[in-house]
Design a protein that fits this description.
mainly alpha; elongated; 5 helices
């Protein structure tokens, strides 16, 4: 019975690892091509889009490496996976650092500091653009009175 459960866990982990790695590759390839398209269109946000895509893709890859620890059988494999995790975490941190630098650069070009929005606020604005228009109307009314 123990062998059956061990085999089942290994199969499920293997499938999950493969799925997450495919997602990672797909996200990175898609965002790279789309960022290149934006670059050809002279979109100033192409670099930001590329960095966000790489960050998300690396996060999925990091998740697959963490899952891989479930199926490890010896210490050499653990050390290899640990080094991959450290390298991928460092790459993710560097991408985040680059993104924050770009955002500061854009704010200084605009000449004013703007409130930094959380990820959930940005997602909400994308999903519900009508709420942004309502906020603008309320702010305009309060400024006019």
């Amino acid at each position: 019975m123990h062998e059956l459960i061990t085999h089942l866990v290994a199969v499920i982990a293997g499938l999950s690892i493969d799925f997450m790695e495919l997602l990672s590759i797909g996200i990175i390839v898609y965002t790279t091509f789309f960022a290149f398209y934006k670059l050809l269109k002279k979109d100033p946000n192409a670099r930001i889009y590329l960095l966000h895509g790489q960050s998300i893709g690396l996060t999925f890859k990091l998740g697959s490496e963490i899952l891989r620890t479930v199926t490890v059988r010896n210490m050499d494999e653990i050390l290899q996976i640990a080094m991959l995790i450290v390298i991928k975490a460092a790459m993710t941190w560097l991408i985040h650092w680059e993104l924050s630098g770009i955002e500061q650069e854009q704010e200084s070009k605009n000449g004013h500091a703007r409130k930094v929005k959380s990820l959930s606020e940005r997602v909400h604005e994308k999903l519900h653009p009508e709420t942004i228009e309502a906020k603008i109307e309320v702010e305009n009314e309060t400024n006019n009175h």
